[in-house]
Write a structure and sequence with these properties.
Rossmann fold, 45% helix, alpha/beta, 14 strands, 417 residues, six-stranded parallel sheet, five-stranded parallel sheet
Length: 417
């Protein structure tokens, strides 16, 4: 169950699981494109759908079904997430005089309508509802719609309400992604879809990018752990199990310089797993998991950057010396007490992160994902004189004479500055 793995083969296995789902996802997208709401109802596996949209009355009723302590915790978590994401809010407009007569800047505009995918099925994920919705609201998005597999947990409904989501729909899987991307009778198309999901959800997001922007491939969950002889095997095992319980396709990898640590962690995994309520899921995920023993921390860092894990936990004697050198990770947890679960719920950072090695090119979800920018150029007559010869020379060299002339006529005019 807990075996040595070869890094490159492990990474290749994570990519391969997406391709295995392509034929199924292609069929689902085609059905939603053709049949809209009818396809959403027919593809609903566990619940016979009548109403796809969740009413305001259902939102309010959900609060009565959730323990007040849980509601309070969700409110506190939302506040922490908002506090961190407020730090990321860009200025609506900034301008800088680069030289006399030339002022340049950036105008930032929030997207108008976005879609959130909130996982469900095996477990309720109100935390993902907060993680997806809060940065969208902080960015200033006016229309935030969410899809989640039915029956939607009252906890998830409460979290979506707390976070300010404007529309909620009962739909999960690849069909929910297709509905938000293409539109149906009930669901108006969005500009961008964010949120984690299984391989079908992730692949649907990737396949529909001609119709809608996405955040990044996000799911199933994974963790990479860099550890040395100072690491506590119980802590390492606990972090492995925490990610493994998400999904049978979740994956965990320990990269260590200590040849004795894997066996110790393996024993701890067996001990802790015996008490785990989601043991069956963990056992499946452990088939995707393992460890690699490397010569030193240089090799550990290099191996971790090849893996490019969603979550990276650094449990070594001097963790800051490692974190400054790591290049590829969705989120980095520094030191033995920085449990990944803290980032999942309440520390304030976002837990929607790129998986399957995509942290080599994508960043985790943040406020910027819900904004677009435009450059701003303000040039007066003096500024035009400063750069006029350059523009005319290059435009003429490219054979774009009208470009050159658009500058020339301004420079030769006798109008106002």
């Amino acid at each position: 169950m807990w075996n040595a793995v070869e890094i490159d083969a492990w990474v290749a296995g994570r990519k391969g699981s997406l391709e295995e789902a392509r034929a199924t996802v292609t069929g689902i997208i085609g059905r939603v494109r053709k049949d809209g709401d009818t396809a959403l109802r027919e593809l609903s596996r566990h619940v016979k759908l009548t109403e796809i949209a969740v009413s305001d009355e259902e939102r309010e009723a959900a609060y009565d079904e959730v323990d007040p302590k849980i509601v309070e915790s969700l409110i506190e978590a939302e506040a922490r997430i908002e506090r961190f994401h407020e730090l990321q809010r860009p200025r609506d407009l900034w301008l800088q005089e680069m030289e006399p007569g030339i002022v340049l800047g950036i105008k930032t505009t929030p997207l108008n309508r976005v879609g959130l995918y909130i996982p469900g099925g095996r477990a309720a994920y109100p935390s993902s509802a907060l993680m997806c919705a809060v940065p969208a609201r902080v960015a200033g998005v006016k229309e935030i719609c969410a899809c989640s597999p039915p029956p939607i947990s009252p906890m998830t409904l409460v979290a979506l309400d707390i976070a300010g989501v404007t529309e909620i729909y009962r739909s999960g899987g690849a069909q929910a992604i297709a509905a938000m991307a293409l539109g149906t009778e009930s669901v108006k198309p969005v500009q961008k879809i964010v949120g984690p999901g299984n391989v079908y959800v992730t692949l649907a997001k990737m396949m529909l990018r001609e119709n809608v922007e996405i955040d990044f491939p996000a799911g199933p969950s994974e963790i990479g752990i860099i550890a040395d002889e100072t690491a506590d095997p119980a802590f390492v095992a606990a972090d492995v199990l925490a990610q493994a319980e998400h999904d049978p396709n979740a994956a965990c990898i320990l990269i260590t310089t200590d040849i004795t640590l894997p066996a110790k962690v393996g024993r701890e995994i067996e001990i802790q797993m015996e008490k785990a309520p989601r043991k069956e899921i963990i056992e499946q995920a452990m088939k995707n998991s393992g460890y690699a023993v490397v010569a030193d921390l240089d090799a550990a860092i290099a191996a971790s950057d090849v893996v490019a894990p969603e979550h990276l936990s650094i449990q070594v004697a001097d963790p800051l010396a490692v974190v400054t050198r790591v290049k590829n990770a969705g989120a980095i947890f520094v030191g033995r007490y920085s449990a990944v679960a803290c980032g999942d719920y309440a520390v304030g950072t976002n837990h929607v992160l790129p998986t399957a090695g995509y942290s080599k090119m994508y960043s985790g979800l943040d406020v910027q994902h819900f904004c677009k920018t435009a450059s701003v150029e303000m040039i007066d007559r003096n500024g035009l004189e400063t750069i006029g010869d350059i523009v005319e020379t290059i435009a003429t060299a490219e054979g774009l004479h009208a470009h050159a002339n658009s500058v020339r006529v301004r420079r030769s005019s006798k109008g106002k500055k």
